[in-house]
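User: For my dataset I need records formatted as: sequence, then structure tokens, nothing else. Please produce one.
Assistant:
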Amino acid sequence: FGTPKALSPQSNLPVFPTPLIGRERELGQLHQLLCDPQCRLLTLVGPGGMGKTRLAVETASNVADMFANGVYFVPLASVNAIKYIVPMIADALGFVFQSTGRSEPKTQLFNYLKERQVLILTDNLEHLLSEPGIEVLSELLTSASQVKLLATSRESLGLQGEWVFEVHGLPIPESEEKSGAMQNTSAELFLQRARRAHVEFSPTPEDHRSIVRICQLVGGMPLGLELAAAWVRTLTCDEIASEIAHGMDFLSISARDIPARHRSMRAVFDHSWKLLSEEEQHILLRLSVFRGGFRREAAEQVAEATLTSLSTLVTKSLIRRSGAGRYDLHELIRQFAAEHFSERPQEQKTTQARHIKYYLTYFGQADRRLRSSAQRETIAELSTEMDNFRSAWNEAVTDHDFELLEGSIPTISVLIDTRGWFHEGLELHGKAIAELERIGTNKTLSRTDQITLAYLLLYHSMFETRLGQYEKAQAGFERSIQILRPLDEPRVLVGALAFFGNMMEFNGKYPRALELYAEGLEIAEKIHDPWFTALCRLAQTALSGVMQSLISPDVAHEKLSSIVADWRAVGDPRLTAIALNNLSWTSMKLGLFEEARATLEESITLSSSIGDRWTMGLAYRALGTIAQKKGEHARAAEIFRKNLEIFTDLGMRQFAARALAEMSRSVFELGDDEEAERGWREAFRIASESEGNFGLLEALLGLAALRVKRGDMELAYGLALLIPDHPLAIQDNKERAARLRAELEAQLTPTQVAMIRAHMQEKTFQLAAEQLLKQ
């Protein structure tokens, strides 16, 4: 039946000059699959350039000792017909066909393999699948029971008994700052290739950030990384990232030892594009309007893609399943399809309009669920669709589709606020506000556009409040309310009043805040809005409890307990957590520290479940305060440090200043005066720059206590005088300042006291504080 060539090698696997990077997990999985007796045909599928061949060769090399008669590589990229598969396998094995006899070549080869333990790696099969005959591989396995096949293809072979292994991009480092974060990732491959392209390449910290960005842009695709790295000879890493973002044609090189089909990403995708039917091409073009993936329902409504067509494109490795009922496109494939789609402007415009309507409507309809017991699932669902929403929002602003935009504003604003994406909220809402204002300079805005503008202003101001930009926020809230009052639009006005009251409370203007809460509550009850009714009741009661002249702590505790029950009935985890935070402070005032701690732990659990770090940070602050009141300063410092990290990450500098000042108080109690002083001075600086007056007062109190300890009584007395009359001084601040002042007055002479008082009255608070701290 034929004879092997003399001294036929046991392997003809290609040898690569560099080690395989970032594929340890896949190698382990593939090794395990090939050890399974049931797995005899294993196909590695993925888009071109994903590194299937390299991974398959490494896998074959690793399992070589399992096959007594060798492992063999069969390259099929240049083969243009199924009929050549058998001769190519024979050539790789070193098998020579008999030219005489009745047996056809296929039978000769199969008979030769019957008693042999062999692994055959057939590489690049996809272009041969458009014609019949691939079943020859199944026939081979049936005939030769000890043979296994490892194949690579851009789509599965569609054979019974085939096991399909999807090859994705290399891991992308989460951060360039963590030690060892780039090892065994796409970034390490980029660095390896960059050093080969330019031996003097030595990345800076800024380069590392850009390298992570490059890895994200190419989705960890090995070929994309190699093509990008070749440019380090002439461009910085930041410039390379910018070029990739602008277009895929940048990803090309002219290396002679790389196959022509792999010398550019366009060549890679052109090859896959030509293997699609016209209908499949049309669907892929329409799918390019999505960003960050899409659900099956969205693909049907926006791109008119059926489940069958989606499955076909998955099979051909042009889209990927990324979860139950969810798909996505590799970003470079999306760019390629989007470029082709731009050649069909009318179809592209129609598809884009469907995309805008779908996602803005989808978000708008999620508002009730976002404020209910389904909040956690809804936040996760909406967060996944943020890339699509951003695209739809920006296109709607460009197209002046403000009526459609208006319906999504409450949902996206609550989502942004919950996730702590305040800067993004300012950017998204700011663009829309600027466009509406531009239109308004030339004509009178319609009622719908005015409502949209007022809606945008109120939530834009809410994000400014979160970031401590109180002056800007106040102007935005006042303008929003000014627009809404004559329009008689209570459903929007109630939000402006409630969130404006919150801003006034943070800025220490308690009486005005109570007025706004009272009006908001009246409107909410009138329009039967349970969510804003409970919110205004919560805010009004909590603030009244802070102002103990209005209600006593026991009355506030009773009312807040009732409000917590109300929020539990509404089912909103976030507002329940906020209510629990407020309840904990009244528990503390009543000395119920264990009750307060249990309340806060529940709040943290709720906040953590929905990713609400702001509310979680507030709960940690209260836990730190409990520890301080109980004299547990080591524990308090640890909690406040966590509190500080949260607010710093969120960009809430005014809250970070307060956390730092309160942490320094416990550090001082633990005896580390120098560290405490550094913390208080830094807290004072941050608070002064961010309208964070609560942190500023806490820092001054701490520095006054430090001066007392060092014997500088006059300076300490001057600092203590600044606290009680400040509009943001809470009861705890006033009481501590009063005790300190009384202690110092007993040690200073009447003349010293009078001179310091007279000196302080001549200056503003900020100037007096700054001058005292320089001494």
